[in-house]
Amino acid sequence: MPLAGNSTMIGRYSGGFVMTDIDQDRINRDELPFVAPCRKLSPWAPFKWVRLGIKDLLQAPQQSLIYGLAVAILIAVVSLLAWLKGSQWIMFAMLGGFVFLAPLTCIGLYAISAQLERGQPPLMARSLRAAFRRHLGNELIFAIILLVIFLVWARAAVMVTVFFPTEGDITWRDLWPYLAFGSLVGSVFAAVTFSASAFSLPMIMHRDVDSITAIVTSVNAVLRNRLAMLLWLTIIVVGLLLGLVTAFVGLIVIIPVIGYAAWHGYLETIDADKFPRHETGITSVPRNPDL
Fold this sequence. Notes:
Blueprint: E1 7-13, E2 16-21, H1 45-59, H2 61-85, H3 88-105, H4 107-116, H5 124-134, H6 136-160, H7 172-197, H8 200-206, H9 211-224, H10 226-245, H11 251-269
Antiparallel strand pairs: 1-2
């Protein structure tokens, strides 16, 4: 199986093939494409990603549930603080803003999936090291971008409450300006953030690329697969809502499935073979096609 940089198979590693890119040190980064090409997806492709995500969860149940529990507790604590220190509207704004920050919480899950498809034991320590240390520079740039969007969203969400009626008996007729304007504002923020983050962080984990290339690649792939990505966004939103209505308990399972599914969605959508592998870490070893 040819890979960028004239790869050569040299042995086995943890039950899977080890392949080394022997010419990686001779890659001229000035000649790399500005954006990785994307494949045309079936509109129903996200359902396949979810099935693969569930499979990964079943292969690494302990790591998955621990990770999901940690994220669920984080969301619950932030929501509780927003309720106690602010108001219910601030809490709803924080919960809505989680859609923007969700990709960051799934970085470690990408690493678990990457280990499974290489026949490696899915170690939590290795996943966290790969997620928050090896690629920290590019991830921090991306995190700052998402944080700025989140803060602007939080401010906009609070401002939208001026349209909420406060006098007399409130009817749906009184609520429609608030709901319509809030939905419009939220849709704009969600569309921008989703397009930029759908595949960018998995690409940073998978290949040695900068944040701008990963973001442009993600936006390009989303625009070229609108129906599939609309379905994927719907699955994410519905999953998060189910997690919230179960008092955050459902998020313990839903977050890992979404994270694993996002990784498999990236692998199916983005053709990143022209970009070099990381020199060290989980993704320095190619995937085992038999797994």
